[in-house]
Amino acid sequence: MSSTIEALAHDGWAAATVAAVAERAGVSRGAAQHHFPTRETLISAVLEQIFDEMTANASTTPADISDGVERVAAAVDRAVAIYTGTEFKAALQVWAAAASDPGLRELILPMEDKFARAAHQMTVAAIDPEGRYPQAHSIAQVTLDLARGLGLADTLSDDSKRRAQVVATWTELITAALNIDRA
Amino acid sequence: MSSTIEALAHDGWAAATVAAVAERAGVSRGAAQHHFPTRETLISAVLEQIFDEMTANASTTPADISDGVERVAAAVDRAVAIYTGTEFKAALQVWAAAASDPGLRELILPMEDKFARAAHQMTVAAIDPEGRYPQAHSIAQVTLDLARGLGLADTLSDDSKRRAQVVATWTELITAALNIDRA
User: Fold this and answer.
1) Does residue B18 contact residue B42 with C-beta atoms inside 8 Å?
2) Predicted confidence band at A74 (pLDDT cuts at 50, 70, 90)?
3) B145 touching A, CB under 8 A?
4) CA dist B110 to A70, A114, B1, B44, B59, Å?
5) Distance between CA atoms of B165 and B169, rounded to whole angstroms?
6) What is the largest CA-CA distance in chain A?
7) Which residue from A3, A166, B62, B64 lies 20 to 30 Å from A49 (Cα-Cα)?
8) Is the pLDDT of residue A120 over 60?
9) In the predicted structure, residue B5 carries a pLDDT above the cut 90
10) What are phi and psi of B63, to 5 degrees?
11) What is the average pLDDT across A70-82?
12) What does the record give as the DNA-binding region (chains A, B) (predicted)?
C-alpha cells in the first residue's frame, strides 16, 4: 500500500490502478483483483492509509514540551507536517482526479470529513491541552487551512525556506492572540 | 482559451490537448496546431491566462473602502477570491499533472513565481495602501497561503460556510496584530 502512495505522489493518478499495484507487488493481476475487485476498492484502501498516516504525522504531542510559545510552535509545526509529506502529494492526485469523477468524489468526501475532524481535534489539543483558551478551536481551524495552503505550495518545488518564515509569523500571531508569554 | 480553463477545471488534465481545444473551438486540428504546435505551447498559453485572471480577481482595490477593519476584511476577501474561482481549479489540474512531468514543472515554476510576486504585492497594497505597517508584508504572505489552503478545501464540495468563519477569525487576528481600531 505504501508503494501505491509513493507511486501516486510521484507518477500521478495513472499509477494507481489494480494492474499497476499487482506489478509493483510482484503478484499476478488475478491475485491483486482478489484483494481489490474494483479500482474504487483500491482507491478507498489507499485513501484510508493516506489519511491514517497524515494524522499519525500529527498525533503524538510530546509531553515534555512545556507550556507557552514552544508548545504553540510545536503544534503549528505538527499541523504543517500533515500536509508536507508524500501522503498529501498522493492525496492531491486523488483530489485532482475526483474533480471530474463524481463517483470518486462521493467516496472521498466522508473519509475527508472524518480526517478533518480528527486533525482539528488533535490541533486543538496540541495548542491548548488544558482547555484554557476558547479561541483555540477557531485558531486550530485557521492553522490547518494555512498548513494545507503551505502543503500545496510545496508540491512542485522545495518551499521549506519561505514556509519557515510564514510559520514563524503565524506562531507569533497566535501567541499574541492567546496572550501567551514568551517563557 | 476560457473554454479550455473551464474544461481543465471540470474534466481534468485530459481535456487540455490541442485536439480537444480544436474540437471545442469548432476548428480543424490543423488550424489549432498552427496556433499551438505542441501541447507545451498550449499549456503555457492557458496557464498565462489562468494567472492573469487569478490576479485580475484581486487587482481592483475599491477606493471607497475607508481605513480600518473593513479594508482589511476586503483585502482578505480578495485574496481568498484568487483561489476559489474556476481558474484555481484549472491550475490544480496542471499542478497535479506536473508532479510526474519534470518538463511541465520547469514550464510552470517561473510563471508561478511571477504570479506569486504580483499577488503578494497586491495583497500588501490592499491591507496597507499607505505603507504604515511593516508587518503587512509577512501578514500578506500568510493571508495568501491561507487563501490557497481554503481554495483547495473548496475543490470537491462547496466549503463557503466553513470558509466564512475561517476568514472572520483571520481578519480579527490581523486587525488585532496591526492595532487597527474597529472604526
Assistant:
1) yes
2) very high
3) yes
4) 36, 37, 21, 11, 20
5) 6
6) 61
7) A166
8) yes
9) yes
10) -70, -20
11) 93
12) 17-36
At A135, list the grid cell: 479561541
Residue B28 grid cell: 480543424
Mutate to test the interface with B, among A86, A94, A105, A145 (most CBs of B within 10 A): A145
> Which residue's entry shows cell 510526474?
B100
pLDDT tens, B121-180? 999 999 998 899 999 999 999 999 999 999 999 999 999 999 999 999 999 999 999 988
Closest alpha carbon within chain A to B83: A149
DSSP A12: -
- Counting beta carbons within 10 angstroms of the beta carbon of residue A147, is it exposed (0 to 12), middle (13 to 18) or buried (19 or more)? buried
CA A42 from centre of chain: 19
pLDDT for the residue A69: 86
B72 touches chain A (CB under 8 A): no
Interface test with B, best of A156, A159, A165 (most B CBs within 10 A): A156
**B-contacting residues in A 35-54 (Cβ below 8 Å):** none
Give the ipTM.
Answer: 0.93
Q: Are A58 and A40 in contact (CB under 8 A)?
A: no
Taking residues A41-50, report their average pLDDT.
92
How many residues in chain A?
183
